[in-house]
């Protein structure tokens, strides 16, 4: 029997935000997936614009289930969705994201089952707020420096999310980055899916509030690396802004990769550092 998959989406006043068409597209493309065991859970942040009526209509037609109650952030909503999920595997997509390949879930589940994977990652098309689209290729060797892949192009075992105590809700913008770092540090089995099935919109909060993103990133680095090396504010600033990591820390992080990948890990980390420096010169 095919394992169930749960897709979790958070919503808030999508009518007032003029996201109704995006929502309809996302839901209908999920309904077209070839995989038979999908549940779609909507966690609505107590919308007041009639979003609940739209959700009830979709629920009555059998497309989804939803819960409407106040939450503190998108990641708080995701955690509530995880707790209610019945799936073995979970993915998170937003109102303005969609799976453009209708065989995606079937293909990803087959790969994860065959490899006993704890999470998967894949390329994704990103729609930038300035109107252009680019392909976000995963860069897992840089996962300790920068967000290495699109959260919308990842699947996770529910049991792993529960074991690792869900998303850390004190991070309102970068909690998915924190989760990936934690999974990498504990050497969970991640598998690359060599196919592009997701189109997503770059998060406006992260894009419009770079100082907030940097502050959260600094806290995430301190939280996850302070047991490995002594960190001070200046060092953390370099790590966040320049991707400049102390060699001692890189040596310890390299052990999270197979022996044959460690030279590549150091090379990719230095490349990311140089990219950051070059970008600042422009």
Explain what this protein looks like in three dimensions.
The protein is an alpha/beta fold. It contains 11 helices and 11 strands. Helix 6 (175-185) packs parallel to helix 8 and helix 8 (210-225) packs across helix 9 (233-242). The model has no long low-confidence stretch (mean pLDDT 95).
| Distance N to C terminus | 55 Å
Overall mean pLDDT stands at 95
Biggest sheet strand order reads 3-2-1-4-9-6-10
CA radius of gyration is 19 Å
> Which structural category fits the helices and strands?
alpha/beta
Can you give me a brief rundown of this structure?
The protein is α/β, with parallel strands linked by helices and 282 residues long. The chain has helices at residues 20-31, 51-60, 74-84, 104-115, 158-163, 175-185, 204-208, 210-225, 233-242, 247-254, 262-281, and strands at 5-11, 38-44, 65-68, 89-92, 98-99, 119-121, 124-127, 133-136, 154-157, 190-192, 198-201.
Core attributes:
seven-stranded mixed sheet; 11 strands; four-stranded mixed sheet; alpha/beta; 282 residues
